[in-house]
Amino acid sequence: MASNAFSGIAEQVKLDLLSATHLQDNINKRKEVSRTFISDTITVPTPEMYQYATLATLGDDVYFEPSTKALEDHVAKITGKEAGLFMPSGTASNQIALRTHLLQPPYSVICDHRAHIHKYEASGAAFHSGAAVLPLIPSNAHHLTVKDVKDNMILSSDVHFAPTEVVALENTLNGTIFPQEEIVKISEYVHSQGKKMHLDGARIWHVAAETETSLKELCDPFDSVSLCFSKGLGAPVGSCLVGTTAFIAKARAFRKLFGGGMRQTGVFAACAAYALTHNFPLLPSVHALAKKLEAGLEEIGVDITSRAETCMIFYDPTPIGVTYEEIGDRASQLPEPLVLGGSRVVVHIQTSESAVDAFLSVVRELAEEKKRAGFVRPEPSTANGNIYKDVYVRRLPKST
Ligand SMILES: Cc1ncc(COP(=O)(O)O)c(C=O)c1O
Q1: Coiled coil located at which positions (predicted)?
Q2: Domain co-membership, 207 together with 272
Q3: To 5 degrees, how large is the angle CA 137–CA 111–CA 347?
Q4: pLDDT of residue 400
Q5: I want to staple 310 with a disulfide (CB 3.0 to 4.6 A). Which of 119, 206, 239, 341 is the partner?
Q6: How confident is the model at residue 388 (pLDDT cuts 50, 70, 90)?
Q7: Are 99 and 130 in contact, with CB atoms under 8 Å apart?
Q8: Phi, psi at residue 275, to the nearest 5°?
Q9: One domain, residues 155 and 300
Q10: Residues 258-314: pLDDT tens digits?
Q11: 25 CB contacts (<8 Å, ≥6 apart)?
């Protein structure tokens, strides 16, 4: 019989977080996701994915959880690597990969100036690994070339410099596809210097789908690859880092050290497996929808600053006299609102075609209003002001 004191504590501890309207709330959330263009990280698990996840094994992953181990082995196999490691996030996966490659400072890591590891991981390479990041602007304004890497890699033993130990590429990068021939050239050069290649392959799935290239071929030039399940593939959580057995054993130790040793991860592994089986095949239609959106925007007169090579488009509405704020505000006032960011538009497996049509209608309507108000499209400038107009202009959605 519980004492009064214990009953009182149990009363304080308990929580029912299901609101009276939780079922309807989730129906509404699914609708909102289908009309949200800010990222593919907002994709949500489907009832079928949840159903499959409940059947996963119940082990503790610090002691090797069977479903998680099966996922790791599978991802290692399809990427042609010896071993895999389930990670809580893409950031953890990239940063632990760098930490595992980097042994003794001083050292530097080369990447594209737009790379996630440089711009959006809170300077984690400096914090976790004591590494300097050398962000390069690709000379062709699309992807780094072997010349860009050669010209900037620090190989000198001069004590004034931090030698480059890792070249970290990203594919896709802002939705663009890194030509595989160039990756192979970079890899051959980097390896000839005894240095390492890491790939942030958060969306490598999109490259495989779009170019019909095997994951193994795409990953072959790299010593380590991080692949995410929680973005374009629509799983709720997780990434997988792959590499040699020795590399992954060391990364496992760093994952624990950084507090990322997780316990009953079987449900997450099963969601990832479900996503690989059922959601990967949806990517070609995602890319087709992105291309439809791009064609519609172009037809209205908007500048496309980074093309829909996969699931992302970057655009600039200045030529039609409209701002991102005007588009976002108008879209948020629709009877069925759209959620838009700034220059970046992301199409994902749960984007509805009607949302794409609604987005185009908003832009078209604003363009026509501006024209009626006397706006005249300026002549395209020949002075190349900024070749990096595809830099991500963020317009955060108003909080709901
Ligand atoms: C290319 C890329 N790499 C890594 C990450 C980091 O993933 P996470 O948000 O799971 O840490 C993201 C996140 O969107 C990403 O877009």
Answers
A1: none
A2: yes
A3: 85
A4: 38
A5: 206
A6: very low
A7: no
A8: -65, -40
A9: no
A10: 999 999 999 999 999 999 999 999 999 999 999 999 999 999 999 999 999 999 999
A11: 19
Q: Would you say the CB of residue 116 lies under 6 angstroms from ligand 1?
A: yes
- Look over the chain and give the mean of its residue pLDDT values, rounded to a whole number: 95
Beta pairing class for 164-170 and 196-201: parallel
Residue nearest to atom 5 of ligand 1 (CA): 90
Residue 41 CB–ligand 1 contact under 6 Å: yes
Q: Residue 377: its pLDDT value, please?
A: 86
Indicate whether residue 290 lines ligand 1 (CB < 6 A): no
Instruction: Tell me, yes or no, whether 301 and 266 share the same domain.
Output: no
Contact of 57 with 66, CB cutoff 8 Å: yes
pLDDT at 233 over 90: yes
- How far apart (Å, rounded) are the C-alpha atoms in residues 3 and 333? 55
Do 331 and 208 share a structural domain? no
d(CA 201, ligand 1 centre) in Å: 9
Confidence of residue 384 (pLDDT cuts 50, 70, 90): very low
Determine the distance separating the centroid of ligand 1 and the alpha carbon of 142, expressed in angstroms: 20
Whether 194 has a pLDDT exceeding 80, the answer reads yes
**Domain coverage including residue 302:** 283-372
Spatial contact of 105 and 272, defined as CB atoms under 8 Å apart: no
Q: What's the confidence (pLDDT) of residue 385?
A: 42
**Is there a single domain that holds both residue 155 and residue 302?**
no
- Residue 377 Cα to ligand 1 midpoint, Å, equals 37
DSSP string, 133-160: EEEEPPTTSSS--HHHHHHH------TT
Query: Domain of 300: which CATH number?
Result: 3.90.1150.10
Residue 381: pLDDT over 70? no
Domain boundary among 228, 258, 279: 279
> Does the beta carbon of 200 sit less than 6 angstroms from any atom of ligand 1?
yes
Question: Domain total for the chain?
Answer: 2
Both 253 and 309 in a single domain? no
DSSP 311-340: SEEEEE-GGGT--HHHHHHHHHTSSS--B-
Residues 218 and 131 in one domain: yes
What pLDDT is stored for residue 57 in this prediction? 98
